[in-house]
Amino acid sequence: MTTLLEARGVSKIFGGGVFDRSSTVALEDFSMAIDSGRPSITAVVGESGSGKTTLARLLLGLVTPTRGQVLYQGQDLQAMAHGDWRAFRRDVQVIFQDPYEVYNPFYRVDHVLSTPVAKFRLASTRAEARGVIEEALKAVGLRPEETLGRFPHQLSGGQRQRVMVARALLLKPRLILADEPVSMVDASLRATILSSLRTMNVERGISIIYITHDLATAYQISENLVVLYRGSVAEVGDVELVVKRPSHPYTQLLISSIPLASAERSWATESAGAPAGPQAPSNAGCRFADRCPSVMGPCLQAPPPLFQTDRHRAVACYLYQSAPALAGDKMGNAFAGSASRAPGNSAGAPMAP
Amino acid sequence: MTADVLRVHGLVVHYHTPLGAVKAADNVSFSLKAGERLGFAGESGSGKSTMVLAILRMIKSPGRIEAGEIWLDDRNLLTLSEEEMRQVRLARIAMIPQGSMNSLNPVMRVKQQIADALVDHGTRLPKRQVEERVRGLLQSVGLQPEVASMFPHELSGGMKQRACIAIAISLRPKVIIADEPTSALDVVVQKQVMETLARVQRELDASVILVGHDMGLVAQFVDRVGVMYAGRLVELSPVRDIFTKSLHPYTQMLIASLPSLDQKGAFQGIPGLPPLLRDLPPGCAFHPRCPHAVDRCRMEEPGSREVRPNSWAACHLL
Amino acid sequence: MEQSAASLRSSAGTARSGRLTGVLRYLHRNPSLVVGIVLLSGLVLFVGIGNILVDTSKARALSAPAMKPPSLQYPFGTDRQGRDLLAVMVAGTPLTLRIGFIAGFLGVGIGSILGFVSAYYRGTVDTVIRGVADIGLTVPGLLVLIIIAVSIKEGLTVDQMAIIVASLAWLNPTRTIRAQVLSLRERGYVEVARLSGMSGPEIIFKELMPNLLPYLGATLVNAVSNAILASIGLEVLGLGPIESPTLGMTLYWVNYNAALINGWWWWWTAPIVIILIVFLGLFFLTVGLDEIANPRLRRTA
Question: Is B268's Cβ below 8 Å from some Cβ in A?
């Protein structure tokens, strides 16, 4: 199966130049592939410092990887011909987190919609361009007469974000990368934007990579979940499995810390676990070792590989080292909906989802 | 019957802009019982931050408290002089403002900032005792003594926020107001900070007002919830009732729109947009978006009524 | 139906008058801008009306009786070489202002291009431009100008004067505009523009420059002000266009003829008052424009 967008062994290290002794590893040996066959929704969940923002920028080609490659339809972004690059820029769209910053206050909101139409030649006349823009706005539930002609500060945060979604739709992309699209939007308006994303996936066959710190929205919208911790994958797989029965101690900590909007006081029962220190851990092993309640010897030696504990889930934790190891670049095998089979001996891995 | 520590009657705050008066808080009334945790939930522009700033009389021009009474210990705070009010702040009512962890003075060590608060309120203690007090405060918020000599940039987000809590409780206030105390923090750190807040509340036997837009946070921390919409308090009920049998349509729709971790479902947002506070619709502020609106809602503003014991709501349909 | 049409019309009317009242209301909040505009307009009126009413040929030497104190016939008096000083002021002020404007515009124009390019593209280009500007800024400007002025053998024209001053006027704007662009280029909308397929120059012109217009305006006024000061400085030293009745040259003659000691007060009062009005006007204008340029006060949501 061909891949649409793929990260292959991508690492990004900041700093560490000749005069700079301290360097930060934002992302370590990360591999993920989005298939071009079936439109999927994949969520990447992580807190601050997890590397999710770096990942977004790497996948968009805004940042070059220190190691590894980012491939679009099999071609390395760094070595693309101009025509292929333009195709990439058309096929892969982004929705950023901040609905305020992405608008140039000098222009009306029309500007952010008309620019890609002009640059990618989506219409030959003004009237045609207007038509294309209006169609995109209606697709996200906005009324063109209420939106066009206004300045950004005259629209609410939710409206502005929806205009950004409309902008992403204009170019009829194959993949949309949504980086925290609703975290700066009011709760009552979030659902509308998320609903648009889901509709786009179902009705227009657009794959979505949804990057967030909010596990609840990630759970609701995606099929597969990648949990990032300090630049490495902690757990990956079918979102129902990862959320309902988390295996990695970090995932368990994360889920138990989420305050649920329900009458049940789940917070009262669990304690919050050891706090993370301000500095990154300096040991060579698992990056969660300094906070992990189940830390063992091997954890401090080398970072654990992914162990595929279920048909649709893999965990990077030595607690599960009896399960077959999964190579980093085969991480997609743990995704639900993937056509590939479970690896290796049937004696080890449990097959039940 | 537990005594009321704080009582707010008919608070009205307007911001006078060149485009008209923005009704940031409209006729808000509630009471805070001793030892209670009261949460105010609402989206941006609902008036919750304005309201708590008004309680501390920290509304700046062009904002003005137009009407209302705020009773603390048998004194109406709105009648006090500026100097008397200054004494009340921090000593009787303390606030952890929004984004406070970014408002710590970057060039002063933590112990200096806490000591400043003590000295400013007339604490005349020798230096050694002040240092002891500071150490004690840091300990009660779960920070190591070494933190006292650190600068804010050396602390993580959660540690900074706990330092702000330490400043807030330094004079053992009876009321602690926390305005979005964890909005910039990760989920795990958020829980630690809230646990700290709960612990200091118990030790001081104080009451807490928590203002936030995260319904989950409110659900897990407070005893009673006040839901604010367009500057009005539309519902005030015990926390269990809010999530199991809420009264106001806005509360119901807001809770229905929250994504759950239990099972996947359809996304249910609230259609329409929140109204402009300087151009509120007639009658009930929510009627343009309410699926149950009738003619009366469009004409007459609903007053707040005790629909069930201890549950207040402002809706004509109840 | 009728009611809504009428209200539409009245709202359109109020929209127009709303903009005027909006402008007036803003001016009320920004008194510096008003003072600056008033002072400079007054000066422009003086020059404009003056050029109509007064015979500017009288600004040349030997056109009027010498050393006459202010009278009805010669309201500003005359100087030692027989120039009608009112004519000198009316003819000379626009010359001085012209030097300032040409030099200021040239300086900010070059400075903008270099500043934008330097900040947007970073890398080697940035290092080179920044290096040259930094070195240039450390050299005492007046000294350089004097050396240049002295080396020009023939008589100096007003425009040549402007070019000389402009040669150094671009250094500071380059640095300050670069600093502004450096912060702007990190904005989200620049990234969105890049992802929408805009090229570098397009982003500079269409995305960055419009947001800097108020700042560029303030920088321009500042540059004009500095250019006028530099030109007056050179002229007072006698390094300016000798033939022209510019304000600075008048002061040169004042100095040359020791008018201060000799008590010919009308000779030095007129140019100094006008110079004062020019600088005060430009100063208040800068302060007023600064308020517009300051993002803290700019109208965003």
Answer: yes
- Per-residue pLDDT of A231-284, as tens digits, reads 999 999 999 999 999 999 999 999 999 998 888 877 866 555 555 555 555 667
Query: How many angstroms away from the CA of C283 is the closest CA of chain A?
Result: 27
Q: Do A275 and B254 touch (CB under 8 A)?
A: no
The tens digit of pLDDT for each residue in B31-82 reads 999 999 999 999 888 889 999 999 999 998 889 999 999 999 888 999 999 9
**pLDDT value at A345 more than 70:** no
The span from the CA of B131 to the CA of A342, in Å, is 62
Å from B16 to nearest chain A CA? 19
Cα separation, A31 vs B296, whole angstroms: 59
pLDDT tens profile C65-88:
888 888 888 888 888 888 888 888
Residue whose pair of structure tokens reads 């222009």 in the numeric block? A107
| Nearest residue of chain C to residue A86 (CA atoms) | C197
What pLDDT sits at residue A289? 87
For chain B, the chains sharing at least 3 beta-carbon pairs closer than 8 angstroms are: A
- Cβ pairs A/C, distance under 8 A: 52
A353 pLDDT band, cuts 50/70/90, is very low
CB distance from B18 to chain A under 8 Å? Answer: no
d(Cα C86, Cα C291) in Å, to the nearest integer? 36
Answer for the pair A106, A192: CB distance below 8 angstroms, yes or no: no
Number of Cβ atoms within 10 Å of the Cβ of C147? 10
Q: Which of A190, A135, A133 is nearest to A158 (CA)?
A: A190
Tell me how far the alpha carbon of residue A172 is from its chain's centroid.
20
Across the interface, whether the CB atoms of A187 and B265 are under 8 A apart is answered no
Q: Give the residues across from A308 on adjacent strands.
A: A314
Query: And the tokens for B97?
Result: 């403002």
Look over chain B and give the mean of its residue pLDDT values, rounded to a whole number.
Answer: 90
Residues of C with CB under 8 A from a CB of A: 187-189, 191-193, 195-198, 207, 210-211, 298-301
Structure token digits, residue C92: 């000379």
Q: What tokens appear for A152 in the block?
A: 């950004």
Q: Which chain A residues are closer than 8 Å to B186 by Cβ?
A: 47-48, 213
Task: Identify the pLDDT of residue A95.
Answer: 94
Instruction: Please state the ipTM of this predicted complex.
Output: 0.86
**CB nearest to B43's CB, from A187, A216, A260:** A187
Query: Where are the alpha helices (H) located in C55-152, listed in sequence order?
Result: 85-121, 123-138, 141-151
3-state secondary structure of C198: coil
Which pTM does this prediction carry? 0.83
- Angstrom distance (rounded) from CA A17 to CA B304: 64
Q: Do B195 and A271 touch (CB under 8 A)?
A: yes
DSSP state of C84: B
Termini Cα distance of chain A: 23
Contacts with A243 from chain B: Cβ below 8 Å: 261
Q: What part of B 61-90 touches A (C-beta under 8 Å)?
A: none
pLDDT digits (tens, 9 = 90+) for C11-24: 444 445 567 777 77
Q: Which residues of chain C register pLDDT less than 50?
A: 1-15, 298-301
The minimal CB distance from A260 to the residues B239, B261, B273 is found for B261
Retrieve residue B174's tokens: 């009876």
Residue written as tokens 């962890």? Answer: B101
Cis ω before B97 (30° cut-off from 0): no
